[in-house]
Write a structure and sequence with these properties.
Length: about 100
């Protein structure tokens, strides 16, 4: 399975923050930009909210998959799977309503 490598940078826009930024890299099997575009088109949320939702879910899900046997995630896994399924259903419905192709 092909892996995509990403760098995440979070910068404080407020000068009162203790740190200027947090940077890290991660690998994921999904092409993140296509997913962000799909969630932006199909979620009904503002672009920034949709991007934060898509990236946040992929980050959490990636860590959870890397540590799937960690009991910390035991309660979250079923709920997160259901949530992602619901989000996929919503974006597929809104994509088809808008005449957009479905990105798997």
């Amino acid at each position: 399975m092909k892996s995509h490598r990403y760098r995440i940078t979070v910068q404080a826009l407020d000068s009162s923050a203790d740190r200027a930024s947090v940077k890290f890299q991660f690998d994921h099997h999904d092409e993140l930009f296509a997913i962000v575009d799909k969630v932006r088109r199909g979620s009904g949320y503002a672009d920034d909210d949709a991007a934060a939702l898509a990236v946040g879910l992929k980050l959490l899900n990636g860590v959870m998959l890397n540590h799937r046997n960690d009991p910390l995630f035991a309660d979250v896994q079923p709920a997160l799977r259901a949530f992602i399924g619901n989000l996929k259903a919503r974006t597929a419905t809104m994509d088809s309503d808008q005449g957009c192709d479905n990105i798997a």
